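I hope you will forgive my troubling you with a question about protein structure. Could you please explain, in whatever detail you think fit, how the structure tokens follow from the sequence? Thank you for your consideration; the sequence and its tokens are set out here.
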Amino acid sequence: MAESDWDTVTVLRKKGPSAAQAKSKQAVTAAQRRGEEIETTKKWSAGQNKQHLVTKNTAKLDRETEELHHERVTLEVGKVIQKGRQDKGLTQKDLATKINEKPQVIADYEAGKAIPNNQVMGKIERAIGLKLRGKEIGLPLEAKPKKK
């Protein structure tokens, strides 16, 4: 009868709390009561649109002064976008949908508040058929022949 020792108990399987249970408010307060170490981390920019990445000098731009600022789209470019869009019979929302951007982006470009992004400018140029960059701003965009 040496195998049946009444003093030892063997637990075959005991699961710990799942990830969701471990993060619950009850689990955290229970762990605090037991004196366990709790680590909390905050996710940075969780759930945000990462299509347009934030640059390193964002903090500097928040403290924007006369000597440190990004160039904005000129009003001339804004007027060309507006004219080209209206000539095609598009609203700001229609143009934004056509180039896969938000309507606010188009509004900012037309108002001269946007920081120029070559990718967005290229999409707008193709959508309205007018040049927005270089010396020939406002002239029709020449169609490049397709390579065979």
Summary: Residues 75-87 form the longest helix (13 residues). The two ends are 89 Å apart (CA to CA).
